[in-house]
Amino acid sequence: MTVMHPIRTVTGPLAADRVDGPVLAHEHLALDLRRDGDDQAVLAEGHRTAIAAELAGLRAEHGLSLVVEQTCRGMGRDAAALARISRQAQVAVVASTGWYYEPFHPDEVAAADVDALTGMLLADIEDGLDGTGVRPGLIAEVGGHAEPTRAERRVLTAAARAATAADLPLATHAHLGRGGPAQLELLTGAGLPAHRICIGHQDLLDDPATHRELAAAGAYVAFDTIGKEPYQSDERRLRLLLALLDAGHADRVLLSCDISRHSYLRGHGGHGYGHLFRSFLPRARAAGVDDDLVDLLTRRNPLRFLTGATTEEF
């Protein structure tokens, strides 16, 4: 039986058996991806109150227990803000370290080899993020194009090595859903077991065969941009999800909304962090997904991913 370590949250260790409500497996609460004049791609100080209020409302209405926050190095990470939001909302938050895909790599990536990059991640994991003492519980969202660039391959390899050394899970950014099998091959080739890996944004990829391939290999498959209709309709996302469930891979799926712009916040007129609970899951239930399966998708699976537990243990 796997030894399950407590989940590292921004306010301290949390025993997995204390998480009795749903988990949002890929979100952003503090973020800055502004470039090329795109001022929407930010979740900053002025948005903190609205974010905390939204999470508190989801805790009260839907039992939201945990948010996995995947903002990493070069993405405007703010661990101190995450701790404040978590305390205000009374919702546990897991912070991350890693590097996003190459257009957002900070200068430190270009100057470092795999060993140096691995050392940077391990320093974050052991010493805490950005001088706050907040320790990450995840390496994410480690980015790559459909064909990873040379820099992305170095980052992915370093991330796998650090995750293996620290016994942490790793979640990827597969740009527009593409390149997942290549990411999985690279990460497992660097020594990280497939069950510690989540391949991101697969709900943007209309390719059920790839979803089955990733799940059959033992990786988690993230349907994590739910509600982002300009990228993909939720109707198609649901069709892809049901196909993966029907193929027998319900224990490999993670769900979330990936809120990454302040215009997505409910208080700013967007669909918000709760779109999964308010809209998508009711449609899934209407299509035959029962309450036990919803609990598997939204609570037990993310806990298994975060802790490395087996299906028998959760």
TrEMBL record:
**What InterPro entries does the record tag this protein with?**
Metal_Hydrolase, Phosphotriesterase
Q: Which keywords label this protein? A: Hydrolase, Metal-binding
Which Gene3D superfamilies does the UniProt entry name for this protein? Metal-dependent hydrolases
Q: Which Pfam families match?
A: PTE (PF02126)
- The residues the entry assigns to the signal sequence are none
- The answer to whether UniProt assigns keyword Metal-binding to this entry is yes
| Protein family | Belongs to the metallo-dependent hydrolases superfamily. Phosphotriesterase family.
Q: What is this protein called?
A: Phosphotriesterase-related protein
| Organism this protein belongs to | Actinomadura miaoliensis
